[in-house]
Design goal:
The complex is a heterodimer of chains A (249) and B (223). By secondary structure, chain A is an alpha+beta fold. Chain A is 29% helix and 27% strand. In chain A, strands 1, 4, 5, 6, 7, 8, 9 and 10 form an 8-stranded antiparallel sheet that branches. In chain A, strand 12 and strand 13 form a beta hairpin. Chain A is globular. The chains are: A alpha+beta (249), B alpha+beta (223).
């Protein structure tokens, strides 16, 4: 592990301000990570997609991680980044929903409230220099209002008609900006998400061909069984990539 | 496993430009609606303008999460003020509160660059301009954010405010009419958008005058 200290390397390091990484008690970099999550609004609600890979650096360590989870009755949460931090966040949210439920007043937290809560948790942890290493996507429907938002590791948050984390922001969002419209049907929404996931599968090395698509509407949520996309690797440029660009060696 | 990420930073710059112009009986506050990180656009429709009281409006760029925290804090402080005094805070009072709030976090600053515009107790337009740690000044016009280096000299050239060193003190409000000020704001943003990659998508303009508050929008380049 790389040692980071301002002192001479042969001197003992006792200052708490000049800590080496080894005795640090906070996340300085992630261990097991998930890659992009993408989501969009469609006619009746929200659709969200994420693959099921969990990477340990560049090693594909886990191949069946659920990165989309329901929160309460009206929301779906998708996460990329450190998977253990995501699981801790799910415990916070479980408690939040439980305590809200115990009022037994017929009220329940909607996607807007949950998103705001996530915003505050992420920002609070960055203020303590102890971030939850995630990019989060929160979507939901309540009282006829569709809601889709994002929160980053340091608390940056916004709403939009379609969102994507990580590589998805580079590769999927241009496609979404091109093809998204307000009245997408469920079938067209799924097709659009699959198109984005396929691009990510081809170009994002940590993406795996096993994904889940989730939907949430006024009626409730459904998370699909894991499935694969059809791929085609037979392009001549894939088979002999150096044709026409041989180089000097 | 070796470290793959750059060292973590609690800050980000989400870009954006803000402008405010004060006139004799109006104030124009404007900002673009693009939010970026690095070379990526996060969203094309994020409002950087926040109405803090009936006669004070703040436009902020910089780090969005800090800006949001600042807006929430000022909203809470203003609510307490209303309960205690049964009135809206004046724009100069809000200006001092904003300065104090920023300086309170002097050693872990809010990374936000603000202009506060509004009407003072005489109904005259006022603009306050800030740095991230709370230094502020009342001026006739100002610009903050990623495009400010392009916008500010243009405003200087067009509006030629009297030197603050003159004695007796000269009024800083601009001689423009409200419609001229709105046109000028549209021009400076269209220009800044040409060269500043963090400015663009849409322009939001808030106009305060004796009649109340009004909003206008103008499309900007999306590239």
């Amino acid at each position: 592990m790389e040692k980071m200290t301002l002192q001479d390397s042969n001197q003992p390091n006792n200052s708490p301000l000049l800590n080496s990484e080894a005795d640090s008690q906070r996340t300085l970099y992630p261990y097991v990570t998930g890659t992009s999550v993408i989501a969009l609004k469609y006619k009746d609600g929200i659709l969200m997609a994420a693959d099921m890979g969990g990477s340990y650096g560049s090693t594909l360590r886990y191949k069946c991680v659920e990165r989309i989870k329901p929160i309460g009755k009206h929301s779906l949460l998708g996460a990329s980044g450190e998977l253990s931090d995501f699981q801790e966040l799910l415990r916070y949210l479980d408690e939040l929903i439980l305590y809200d439920n115990m009022w037994d007043d017929g009220n329940s937290l909607g996607p807007k409230e949950v998103h705001n809560y996530l915003t505050r948790v992420m920002y609070n942890r960055r203020n303590k220099f102890n971030p939850l290493w995630n990019s989060l996507v929160l979507g939901g429907v309540k009282n006829g209002h569709k809601y889709l938002g994002m929160v980053s590791m340091i608390g940056v948050n916004f709403e939009d008609n379609h969102v994507a984390t990580g590589f998805g922001n580079h590769l999927a969002r241009p496609i979404l900006r091109d093809e998204w419209h307000e009245n997408l049907s469920f079938e067209d929404g799924v097709k659009l998400l699959e198109k984005c996931m396929r691009v990510l599968l081809y170009r994002d090395r940590s993406a795996v061909n096993k994904l889940q698509i989730a939907k949430i509407t006024e009626e409730g949520f459904t998370i699909s069984q894991p499935y694969s996309l059809k791929t085609f690797w037979g392009f001549s440029a894939f088979q002999n990539p150096t044709v026409g660009a041989e180089g000097s060696w | 496993m070796t470290k793959q990420q750059a060292n973590w930073s609690p800050y980000d710059n989400n870009g954006g430009s803000c402008v405010a112009i004060a006139g004799a009986d109006y104030c124009v506050i404007a900002a673009d609606t693009r939010m970026s990180t690095g070379y990526s656009i996060l969203t094309r429709e994020y409002s950087k303008i926040c109405k803090l009281a009936d006669k004070s409006v703040m436009a902020s760029s910089g780090f969005q999460a800090d800006v949001k925290a600042l807006q929430k804090l000022l909203a809470a402080r203003h609510l307490i003020y209303q309960h205690q005094h049964n009135k809206q805070m004046s724009c100069p009072a809000m200006a001092q509160l904003l300065s104090n709030t920023l300086y309170y976090k002097r050693f872990f600053p809010y990374y936000s660059f603000n202009v506060l515009g509004g009407l003072d107790n005489e109904g005259k337009g006022c603009v306050f301009t800030y740095d991230a740690v709370g230094s502020y000044e009342r001026v006739g016009y100002s610009s903050q954010g990623s495009g400010s280096t392009l916008i500010m000299p243009f405003l200087d050239n067009q509006l030629k405010s009297p030197s603050p060193l003159l004695l007796p003190a000269q009024d800083a409000v601009t001689p423009l009419s409200e419609a001229e000020a709105v046109d000028l704001v549209k021009t400076v943003f269209a220009s800044a958008t040409e060269r500043d990659i963090y400015t663009g998508d849409k322009l939001e303009i808030v106009i305060l005058n004796a009649d109340g508050i009004r909003r206008e929008y103008m499309e900007l380049r999306k590239d």
